[in-house]
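Newbie here. two chains, one complex. Structure please?
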Amino acid sequence: MRYGRSPEVLRDIHLTLPNGSFHFLTGPSGAGKSSLLKLIYLAHEPSRGLIRLFGQDIATVPRGDLPHIRRRIGVVFQEYRLLDHLSAFDNAALPLRIAGRKIETYRDDVAELLGWVGLGGRMHALPPTLSGGEKQRLAIARAVVARPDILLADEPTGNLDHEMGERILRLLVELNRQGTTVLVSSHDRELVESSGMPVLHLDGGRLQGVGGA
Amino acid sequence: MSDQAPPPHHDAALRPGPLLPTKDGRDGALMFVIAVLCALACLAVLGGAASDRAAQGWRADLKASATVQVRPKSGETSAEAAARGAEALAGVKGVTEARALDRAAASKLLEPWLGKGGVPEDMPIPELVAVDLDPAHPADTAALQSALDQAHVDGSVDDHGRWLGDVERAATTVRLGALGAALVLAAAAGAAINFATRAGLQARHEVVEVLYLSGAEDRFTAALFQNRFARLSFFAGLQGLAAAVALWVVLRLAAPGDGFSPLLPQAWSDLLLVLPCPILASAIGAISARSSAMSILRGYGHGGVG
């Protein structure tokens, strides 16, 4: 994969994430972790190669069917990508709203989830008024609220203290136990090692192999 | 999820907010542009309706009258020939009145060309008979000519057909001109909204991309812009309509008789023609915004966002 005419940022990646698996994705800055996640959550098309999601070759999927595939993928963006004009509640509920759910069917679930990530008292707050850690937790809540089949998280604990990081990891593990395939990009060695989950290591745009924690 | 999870809030005050920001600094300028275009379109339609009415009036006047030029026979004065011609024509079915014009009345007909008092005393003027026709069942030229022939009056009938054709062509031109102006202004409003939608999508690309990556279908996102610009265009159309109607009413009330001038006779019923303006503006806004939003979203292809 390359951006425009720049050199390839990812090459010779052969990766299969089995259903229900949990992997960490590690590597130095610029190794291509975010680019790999972007390919999987369909923000970019590969310049060559093949991406299969849910048994379908993405290049041959009609464009009109892509939204339904995207709804099965939850993403925690590195830069959060919260909508500043929406309340924390509305941000968290966004995937449900896009899927056509009525607020009566999700109000309590979203409120409970926000409470669980420590934002129960900030549901009406707008993102610009939230701290970095609060934004990150809100982004995580949005990614998991629809119980996606795949969860991709780009540095989800980067701005959290250790205790909240552990708590978020428990949430991700809980989701994984319920069947969600999880891929977490992280620099947090302590968190990665304490999780005991397998690690994919990227370096120079190449996958260096799968290791244990 | 855990024993630490707090109980549900049951916060009934939680209501979904608008997915697009409600405030945009550019809305005021766009609304002004659309309102001006709508006002001009309304004035074009109202002006076209008044012009059409004027042309209809002229056509009715021309159709309801004819002019007969009478030439005296030997031993007969011009006045006698005209009187005989008027008598013969008055009895024709479809003629309400026929009267011989004296020299003063005939001279008056020449005033537009020669000026008041510009007809010399010794200038020969044809003897004319003015014929008023029944507007419902007017006598045709052949019937008038036949009546003259039977009365042995040497005369020729002018049914104003040449002028009628000119008036009808002018009326058609005015109608098409008003329609064309309204269509051009509608297209200009559509182009302005198209431009604004593209600018809006560009300015809110963060929102659009998050919706896109969260699984929003193109039509879902396009509907947000469609509804926004439909609403904005409706209120702009309302303002444009109000401005045009206000100007029209001022002209109507300030003018004597049938309206601002005999060239543009106004009627209150003309306002019905422009009442749908806000709805049409709203439809143009919705269609334009939706098509431009869909075009941009399709450009994302299978990926293509940051």
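Moderator note: Chain B has two domains: 27-58+165-298, 65-137. The first strand of chain B starts at residue 65 and ends at 71. Thread marked as resolved.
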